[in-house]
Design brief:
The protein contains no helices and eleven strands. It is mostly beta strands and 126 residues long.
Length: 126
C-alpha cells in the first residue's frame, strides 16, 4: 500500500522559509515522478514543482521558480520542497504526489499523478 505523508507546514512571515517533507513508502519509486501541488478553498489544485525520482530532473511553476527547490533522498525515500522568500500568495495546502513516468520524464498535471498525500497547511503572513 503506497503512502505519501507530508510534514513541515506551518505559519511563517513573508520573506521567510519552510521546508516541506514527503515520506514515501509502499513500493519502489524508480520510474516515478514526485510532485508538489497546492490548493486553496474553492480553487483547483495547481502544480508547484516536480522531480524525476531516477534522473533528478526537475521542473517548476513560473511563480515559484528561483524561490522553491525540490529534491529527493533516494536512500530515505523522502522528497523535499525548500521554500524561500515566501509570499502571502504562497499560502495554501501543499500536497505530495507520485506518478509513473519514463526515466527522465517530469509530470506537471494533476491527472498524471496516481498517489497523493493528505496535505500540509502553509500559511504566510504579511
Amino acid at each position: 500500500q503506497v503512502q505519501l505523508v507530508e510534514s513541515g507546514g506551518g505559519l511563517v512571515q513573508a520573506g521567510g522559509s519552510l521546508r516541506l517533507s514527503c515520506a514515501a513508502s509502499g513500493r519502489t519509486f524508480s520510474r516515478h515522478c514526485m510532485g508538489w501541488f497546492r490548493q486553496n478553498p474553492g480553487k483547483d489544485r495547481e502544480f508547484v514543482a516536480a522531480i524525476n525520482w531516477s534522473s533528478g530532473s526537475t521542473y517548476y511553476e513560473d511563480s515559484v521558480n528561483g524561490r522553491f527547490a525540490i529534491s529527493r533522498d533516494n536512500a530515505k525515500n523522502m522528497v523535499y520542497l525548500q521554500m524561500n522568500s515566501l509570499k502571502p500568495e504562497d499560502t495554501s495546502v501543499y500536497y505530495c504526489a507520485a506518478g509513473l513516468t519514463s526515466w527522465f520524464g517530469v509530470l506537471t498535471t494533476k491527472s498524471e499523478y496516481v498517489y497523493w498525500g493528505q496535505g500540509t497547511q502553509v500559511t504566510v503572513s504579511s
